[in-house]
Amino acid sequence: MQLVPSNGTASAFRQLDVLESVGETGLFEGLPKVDAWRRALAARTSVREAVPENFADLYLSRLRGNDAQILKRAA
Q1: Distance in angstroms (rounded) separating the CA atoms of residues 46 and 51
Q2: Total count of domains within the chain
Q3: CA-CA-CA-CA torsion for 10, 11, 14, 15, nearest 10 degrees?
Q4: d(Cα 73, Cα 10) in Å, to the nearest integer?
Q5: How does pLDDT run across 20-62, given as a tens digit for each residue?
Q6: What integer pLDDT is reported at residue 25 of this predicted model?
Q7: 14 within domain boundaries
Q8: Range of the domain at 22
């Protein structure tokens, strides 16, 4: 078993979760352990409380404001 720091990982997973809400990325297909870890981190109170409740809206607004290619691909 390997231990991996989760402080930055939770943030990355959170951003990927928002992108998944716009369009399926398929990043976790075939990676059930990573997907389970992502979901376990997201369920932690400390992770949920680390950002404002409207994080998804703020993040998507920032991406749109920067004309992010990832959103164009998801559309």
Answers
A1: 9
A2: 1
A3: -150
A4: 24
A5: 888 888 888 999 999 999 999 899 898 889 899 999 999 999 9
A6: 82
A7: yes
A8: 7-74
